[in-house]
Amino acid sequence: MATTMITTLDRSSRAAARGLSDISIRNLFIIPTILFLIVFNIFPLIYSLGYSFTDFRASTNAPANFVGLQNYRDLLNDPYVWSNFAITAKYVIVSVVGQLFVGFGVAMLLNRDIPFKGLITTLLLLPMMLSMAVVGLFWKLLYDPSWGVINYALGLGNFEWLADPKMALYAVALTDIWMWSPFVMLLSLAGLSAVPKHLYEAAAIDRAGPFYTFFRITLPLVAPILMIAVIFRTMEAFKTFDLAYILTSQPTAELISIRLYKMAFQEWQTGRSCAMAYIVLIMVLAITNIYVKYLNKVKER
Amino acid sequence: MRKLVTSVLAGVGLALACGTSVHAQEKSLTIFWAEWDPANYLQELGNEYEKETGVKITVETTPWSDFQTKAFTEFNAHGDAYDLVVGDSQWLGAGSTGGHYVDLTDFFNKHNLKEVMAPATVKYYAEYPGNSGKYWAIPLEGDAVGWSYRKDWFEDPKEKEAFKAKYGYDLDVPKDFKALRDIAEFFYRPDQKKYGIAIYTDNSYDAMAMGFENALFSYGGELGDYSTYKVDGIVNSDKAVAALDAYKELYKFTPPGWAKSFFVEDNQAITENLAAMSMNYFAFFPSLINESSNPNAKNTGFFANPPGPNGDQFAALGGQGISIVSYSQKQDEAMKFLEWFIKDDTQKKWAALGGYTCSAAVLKSPEFQSATPYNKAFYETMFKVKDFWAVPEYAELLQQLNQRIYPYMIGGSGTAKETLDALAADWNATFKKYGRVK
Asked: B410 touching A, CB under 8 A?
């Protein structure tokens, strides 16, 4: 029934007067986009798949030799790559869960009548409007053990947030939570304001407690939109590069994207890094698919 | 339709106009380098060249952290954005075997540069493979790692007395690595916000490697055999293990948060009254004697990397040679610039502007050695320098070194012996992969 989606052309319009049909106008809009996608997305995607089976190095003139699955085998047997994946998983969990709690919590607080609500919401959205690199540089100063504000405010002395192998990853995650909780908050606010008021009234008449109301009315109705926030944030957190790259050089905070960057653009192991990029792509696709399945289930309820 | 035709014509006209304006400025050269003071000095030197010949020189720069990435992205795309590049010494292998650099062997021999330039600079900035007699760059900026220190802290009579009481010898510029360690320990006073020493620890490029090399080479160790690519038994020899332990020991006496430090932080250690001694490339010392950038300028002294326990004294090499990019459309013009650059007069000007000339004659001249407080230490150092691998896969070797040494140095995991054994195995596997060893 796709044809019903197209609005028919107004007979008196200038386009119709020039003899353009619905189909040709549709093509005029769509074909450039499709071409753009093919040239800049699909073609490199397939081309790099080809490279992932070779020992190609972009920095030399040596021809690319076909090595079969060697790159994939080496990567999946490399303990460093596995540790990068483990670090990334830990980072994604900490930062997404953190953002969900903070973002949803702030949204609950804002979802009531308070003075200057609009102003407060706008101010709270500021962190996410900054550039990642700028946030990284600012937080590097905030975390500084000698003159950083954080240690001063918390009275932690010379605690080395970014130089401590155990703390570095959490410090990066904390920055990410600060930056992206507003995004979860915004989506949660949209979800919360869409909950019909009469449900709460009915619950109040039935003398339902605040916990019961939250878990039986608020959460189930906001869940689909929260899931969308989780999907976006998981994908983004999986790809995090700038923040972590700027903040710390601790191997315990080396996310998979940083490893990939080093492999591709510092070591110029083009073939191998293509294989790595494919492994990451497959993982992100798999995780997203699980989420989407779950999201559909939540919607059905 | 008429509108469309008009705008297309206008667009074509504009494109043509831009094209011709580029054409009109044909006599210009673009040199690519990292963003630091010497690049500004080179721009000033380039301005002189423009006055003499009318050829405009533009020195384009990018921060150190992505210098390598940006240069090789351009090379790999066979781009002609840069006519000349002042490339790091480790790039020689990748630049020459990848076909990115123009072979300068004839130019080198014609001007007898092997004699004109200091031997170490010829060996490490120009020749690849080692001892092949093939040259790919002209030594431009000599550099090595040296040390700066706080003369006022060292000369304080109370400190001198306390030091002698504790260690049994006089507090002075360190005569060996043991003294370096003792002085670092002596000045390490976190309660007074004073710390002993600032060293390189950044693992994102070659900072950590350069810092470790300072200890390694002075302890009589080596990274491997550069002609046979043998590493096992060399990079993990007893001397190398002792050197790594000595370098890790120094980390104990650094200011807090010293886990990602390179030249900026190490100069800050002196300007911000943080440390008694600080490791850095000589190229960064000019800002330390400048009172506008260092409030302690009058009280800052300099010394060469001290010898190790057996008296060996070496330092890690920095510095760069200038190469012609093989994709440049103006190679003849670039060659003319190099001919001008190697003249004695130009080299003198280069040194006067603040560049570290590699010309042996200028280096040996008393004017040069007395021109700054660190030039003499620089001259001494430049004749005992060693460098990292220059093979095309050096970036992988560097990454493996960072991956092994950093967790040991900063995180304290494993032992020095385990760390270097693992590094030897990594490097051996890499050399095997590229068919350098069986």
From this structure: yes
> Is A139 in contact with A175 (CB distance < 8 Å)?
yes
Residue for token pair 């600012």: A138
Cβ–Cβ gap B257/A249 under 8 Å: no
Report the C-alpha gap between B139 and B320 in whole angstroms. Answer: 6
Q: Which of A60-64, A202-206, A256-260, B208-212 has the lowest mean pLDDT?
A: A60-64
In this predicted structure, the answer to whether residue B370 has a pLDDT above a threshold of 80 is yes
**How, if at all, do strands B28-34 and B56-62 pair?**
parallel
Smallest CA-to-CA distance from B423 within B395, B438, B407, B404 is with B404
What band does A9 get if pLDDT is binned at 50, 70 and 90? low
Check CB contact under 8 Å for A59 and B76: yes
Which residues touch A47 (CB under 8 Å, ≥6 apart)?
A: none
Q: Which of B98, B259, B411 sits opposite A61 (nearest CB)?
A: B98
Which residue from A minimizes the CA distance to B202?
A249
From B398's Cα to the closest Cα of chain A, the distance in A is 9
Q: Are B45 and B350 in contact (CB under 8 A)?
A: yes
Size of interface A-B (CB pairs under 8 A): 77
For B277, the token pair is: 């001694």
Residues of B in contact with A75 (CB under 8 A): none
Q: Residue A268 above 90 pLDDT? A: no
Contacts of A258 (CB under 8 A, 6+ apart): A84, A241, A244, A245
Question: CB of A262 within 8 Å of any CB in chain B?
Answer: yes
Report the distance separating Cα B12 and Cα B272, nearest Å.
Answer: 57
Please tell me if residue B274 touches chain A, with a CB cutoff of 8 Å.
yes
Alpha carbons A178 and B331: distance in angstroms, whole number: 52
Q: Rounded to a whole number, what is the distance in Å from the CA of A158 to chain B's nearest CA?
A: 7
Instruction: For B238-277, write each residue's pLDDT tens digit.
Output: 999 999 999 999 999 999 889 889 999 999 999 999 999 9
Q: What does the alpha-carbon distance between residue A157 and residue A23 come to, in Å, rounded to a whole number? A: 69
Contacts of B69 in chain A (CB under 8 A): 265-266
One-letter amino acid at B178 equals K
- Nearest CA to CA, how far is A160 from chain B (Å)? 5
Q: How many CA atoms lie less than 13 Å away from B273 in the CB half-sphere? A: 9
For residue A242, the distance in angstroms to the closest alpha carbon of chain B comes to 13
Q: Are B160 and B240 within 8 A, CB to CB?
A: no
User: Is B54 an 8 Å CB contact of chain A?
Assistant: no
CA distance A60 to chain B (A): 4
Q: Is the pLDDT of residue A250 over 90?
A: no
Identify the CA nearest to B32 among candidates B55, B60, B58, B63.
B60
| Each residue's pLDDT tens digit, A116-140 | 989 999 999 999 999 999 999 999 9
**Chain A residues with CB-CB distance to B393 below 8 A:** 267
From B394, which residue of chain A is nearest by alpha-carbon distance? A267
**Amino acid letter for position B222:** E
* Alpha-carbon gap, residue A34 to A49, rounded angstroms: 20
Residue A132 near residue A243 (C-beta atoms within 8 A) = yes
A160 interface with B at CB cutoff 8 Å: yes
- Between CA B409 and CA A165 the distance in angstroms is 11
pLDDT digits (tens, 9 = 90+) for B385-408: 899 998 888 889 999 999 999 999
* Contact yes or no for B395 and A145 at CB 8 A: no
Q: At B174, list the tokens.
A: 């360190």
Q: How confident is the model at residue B4 (pLDDT cuts 50, 70, 90)?
A: very low
Give me chain B's average pLDDT, please: 90
φ and ψ at B236, to 5 degrees? -115, 25
- Cis omega (within 30 of 0) on the bond before B129? yes
Nearest to B396 among A250, A252, A269 (CB): A269
